[in-house]
Amino acid sequence: MKLKTLMAVTASAAALMTSAAMADTTLNALFMSQAAYSEDNIKSMTASFEAANPGTKVDLEFVPYEALHDKIIAASGAGDDGYDVVLFDVIWPAEFAERGFLTDVSDRVAADLTSKIFDGAWTTVEYDGKRYGMPWILDTKYLYYNTEILANAGIETPPETWAEVLEQAKVIKDKGLVEYPLVWSWSQSEAMICDFTTLTAAHGGSFFDDGKPAFETGGAKAALDYMKTSLGDGLTNPSSLEYFEEDVRRVFSAGDAAFAMNWTYMNSLVNDPNESKVAGKVGVMSAPGVDGVSEASAVNGSMGLGIPSNSPHADQAWAFINHLTNQSTQEEFANLSLPIWKASYSQSAVTDGQEDLVAAADKSIAVMYPRPLVASYTEVSSILQKHLHGSLLDQTTSEEALANAAKRVARIR
């Protein structure tokens, strides 16, 4: 009897240990290391989640934006060793959903959340009537300007149209205040496509019409012409053709540009004396419009958090996503990325110290223009990047670049 009792106790203890081991879960989460929330922000959010969920640990991996898409795809074949939570761009849900990379979480999203979150944020995670995650980063590019340079140029108010941007830039250049008043992220990358989209929207253009390329003429051509003119007139820093967003921030922070297009995160950093020489001399506004066409312009640069289809920890992953995206968490870290929640924009935690940014966001969020929401977007973007960049380098005219891009895109569409 004693031996049987000992065996029973041993078996019971082993079962308890196995159960405890199973209860301890490690989530693998993939994020980007630039723009929006900082790595320190995400680590702080994660620490508070782990404290509230002692059975769950989160291993964080940060990669540059340019590596994010391919990392998610590569991990889709890793079985249980892949990621449990991934950050994805608004341009990828169609591809990821059709290829089965992301879990449909429509049934997990509470019905009452729909009206509480901006429509532009929801588009980040939606495809074909289903939701593949929760929106997390609600973002667009804003026009930043150096108030001191404008004042020294005798300019009393910032530009209201894209034409006025060039006019004011010319005044600033002619007065010798800065060699190149404009700086952009026009490397052959998605960053350039975001600026091209903003300008296309401002000029009333579109990417597709009835499924066929529509960027050979109209607003898209006007957008590329605008970009080329700003370079040809010596108003845009020619190094913009090699720049990403952090390069733009660096140049503007050094006082070497009067105007810059960049995401929300730049507002806090260019006003930080430890990061910027122009702190306290920065204005921010929604990207302007075009006379008779638009009053403002914006690209939808939002991002969402989803659960890869091969994750073995969907419940815990969803709990982590809910923590990162809930209203209180987002309001606590609103200095680098504004919340997805409509009600947050009346909270002092969000508005205090960044009233101009919130005012600009109020205008921009309403007009955010999407890049093509198609499963073949990555290929479409690559084609456009190549031909737009070549034209900006004066290798082709606007007409030739867009016509060649349209022919290539038509083949894959």
Automatic annotation (TrEMBL):
<dbReference type="InterPro" id="IPR006059">
    <property type="entry name" value="SBP"/>
</dbReference>
<keyword id="KW-0732">Signal</keyword>
<protein>
    <submittedName>
        <fullName>Extracellular solute-binding protein</fullName>
    </submittedName>
</protein>
<dbReference type="Pfam" id="PF01547">
    <property type="entry name" value="SBP_bac_1"/>
</dbReference>
<dbReference type="GO" id="GO:0042597">
    <property type="term" value="C:periplasmic space"/>
</dbReference>
<comment type="similarity">
    <text>Belongs to the bacterial solute-binding protein 1 family.</text>
</comment>
<keyword id="KW-0813">Transport</keyword>
<dbReference type="InterPro" id="IPR050490">
    <property type="entry name" value="Bact_solute-bd_prot1"/>
</dbReference>
<feature type="signal peptide">
    <location>
        <begin position="1"/>
        <end position="23"/>
    </location>
</feature>
